[in-house]
Amino acid sequence: MLERGDIANSWRTERWDSLRLLTPNWQSRLPGYGYEGDNPDGFRTVPETIAFISNYARVIDAPVQTRTRVISLAGTGGNYRVISDQGEYSCRSVVIATGACNIANVPACAADIPPSIQSLTPMQYRRPDQLQPGGVLVVGASATGVQLADEIHRSGRPVTLAVGEHIRAPRIYRGKDIQWWMDQAGLLRERYDEVDDIVRARNVPSMQLVGSADRRSLDLNALAGLGVKLVGRFAAIGNGRAQFSGALRNQCALADLKMNRLLDAIDTWASANDLDGEIDLPVRFPPTEVEASPPLSLDLAGGEIKTVLWATGYRPDYSWLHVPVLDRKGHIRHDGGVVAAPGMYLMGMPFLRRRKSTLIDGAGDDARDLVAHLASYIDRKI
Q1: Residues 21 and 92 in one domain
Q2: What is the pTM of this model?
């Protein structure tokens, strides 16, 4: 196993200080290893997550060669050549587990931001005091965007949040964590070959969740209640002004609709499994409130905004991959992790084989499936 940095490198080098896992402690389940503390419903901090992953590597005695950066992977099925900064390797099969979050996906128009404004990504952000005094525009309202908007606003800086497509969800529903419901009802185990549009499913934004000690929900209503200004999806920059979509109300209505469909599915499952008498009654949350005429632009040169934080997602980096397996959008072509090149496999991507593939809890099941395929491939080659 080749690792570019130390074990849990991304958690060590690319996460902000206050981040906690969005899944409860009990849900960090790996083969033969899980949570053993006294706070199963809590949420791990960054140092705790680093320790969890590092301890797992020690428990299973993983053959990890750290601080080894892969420069090139080339070849054809059955004869791959890996060049790293620590040496070269030849192999018949290779597993790519570099993940989906290697590069911050910042729009090209970010280059047009006035030079006086600080421009950061969540990979670069650590804490509010590294930001210039003054207003902050956070672009993106998925899990990362809402958490950073909340933290930065509470630091005393006025925040404007540009909202595009998002997934609204309560942290707690009917007395249970939303992840408990999705786990128990089997929603997280849904397979990639059971959905109608897997491409769409793999690009759904992350839920608006925060892993706080008080297990609070953090949606747009909560942020607006704190004083965060909501505007539409970031569209462009022109003449020193940020321009926003006028579809904020529609985006919020669609997110509310999807949330209620999820809650309907949970209620149906609870009734079918005779849980209604044992848990809290069903509830529906107030719709997202949107002002009558949200601003469609914001003057970036006027001094009100001092920082733009691009919570606009990430993309993988395959600049080192020299095997013809990329599609026109630069993504690896695969069928549930079985790549379109003999002996090549993919791990750690959204909805790779199951809806939970992006979670720690999903790695074990995906790995078992792919290892079985890999072993069969190797046996055929012998």
Answers
A1: yes
A2: 0.94
Distance CA 14, CA 186 (A): 32
Q: Per-10-residue mean pLDDT for the chain, 382 residues long?
A: 96 95 96 94 96 96 96 88 96 95 93 93 96 96 97 97 97 98 97 95 94 95 97 94 96 97 97 94 96 93 92 95 95 96 96 96 96 92 62
Whether residue 112 is found in the same domain as residue 205: yes
- CATH number, domain of 294, equals 3.50.50.60
Same-domain status, 116 and 254: yes
Report CA torsion sign: 291, 297, 302, 304.
positive
Query: Does 3 fall in a domain?
Result: no
Domain range spanning residue 271? 103-314
Task: Concatenate the DSSP letters of all residues of 167-224 into one string.
Answer: B---SEETTEEHHHHHHHTTGGG-BGGGSS-HHHHTTPPPBS----TT-----HHHHH
What region, left, alpha or beta, does residue 345 occupy, with left being phi > 0 and alpha being psi -120 to 50 degrees? beta
Is residue 96 within 8 Å of residue 366, measured between CB atoms?
no
- The total domain count for the chain is 2
Same domain assignment for residues 219 and 338: no
State how far the alpha carbon of 1 is from the alpha carbons of 72, 76, 94, in Å. 15, 20, 10
